[in-house]
């Protein structure tokens, strides 16, 4: 290679010409609630009572989830960070369960003339719900458009950023949020030195947890590793020990089906029974204050804590915090460097390695050993 061969600049996003911000979606008005819930639960055996109950959570907030506005804010923050770093990359937003749908996003990518896009999902952890389900929806959408070739080639080509729960940017933003929550606890008459830090994430069925073991640490192990690091960094910043636990929220499915426990409300009761009076809740399982956080934590869990006579504060989610957004752009550049075949250092914090951006065969199935019947992009097992 001649010495003057043009090297891609460190800030170069080549080979990508677009970034797909890929999320869950949520209703914008009361009429959207039932169709949205039908989209989410199609064929998943969620009992009707649970659906009615979840519908009420949305109606209680005027039929509108905060998630779409939060994704628009993240899109704007990503655009600003890309522009500030001189990176030319169009950002397109799409959702699995509500407009703009995956198909709308692919339309937009085509209108932009994009040939190769990097996908960033709004879930930091690897499991069926947080990784493979997004990759399947993308494949199914392209298939319906007649754009999924027998060899896995697609019209617009997609790569995915690795699960980023252990990326320094995500960790830093969570640490900052928890430190702020400890300060809040003080202003509410609570005592940080006597408090328990309770990390919270979305529960999943035990079967999905078991299936998440293929090729990497399980969903709960990923959370435990991050929790350990966040608590240690918070302890350094607040200057005292920070004891912590991991609890779960938002379980659904039939009661006979085991999901990850303890539920955050049950856990608060257990802590209160042990005489604990101060709690900081940190929703590390979620990237923004969407309905799971607004209802399951701010409405339900904080009421439980209040009833138990506890002083409880909910830490913020990473949202559009600067270290998080900067970290996401770093991850996009990291993925671009990988795609170019360069030597790449994948930054991580904690004891787990960086998870793969091209998923392994059988990675993150809904249930162990189950044939998917559905192809998934960004993996080496397109048709397994
Ligand atoms: C791991 C995980 C995440 C985090 C990763 C990610 O972000 O993707 C997540 C996020 C979200 N979950 C959300 C909403 C819902 N999730 C449901 C159902 C389910 N979630 C599951 C798991 C997860 N879910 C599972 C295993 C089910 C059972 C059905 C199935 O196996 O798929 C249901 C159906 C009713 C109910 O059962 O609650 C709803 C309405 C919203 C939107 C909130 C808003 O509108 O602001 C968001 C961001
Ligand atoms: Fe969910």
UniProtKB/TrEMBL annotation:
The keyword Lyase applies. Fe(2+) binds at residues 202, 292. Involved in coproporphyrin-dependent heme b biosynthesis. Catalyzes the insertion of ferrous iron into coproporphyrin III to form Fe-coproporphyrin III. It is found in: Cytoplasm. It catalyses: Fe-coproporphyrin III + 2 H(+) = coproporphyrin III + Fe(2+). Belongs to the ferrochelatase family. Its EC number is 4.99.1.9. It is an enzyme of class 4 (lyase). The keyword Magnesium does not apply. HAMAP family: Ferrochelatase. Pathway: Porphyrin-containing compound metabolism; protoheme biosynthesis. InterPro entries: Ferrochelatase, Ferrochelatase_C, Ferrochelatase_N. Fe-coproporphyrin III binds at residues 65, 134. This is Coproporphyrin III ferrochelatase. Keywords: Cytoplasm, Heme biosynthesis, Iron, Lyase, Metal-binding, Porphyrin biosynthesis.
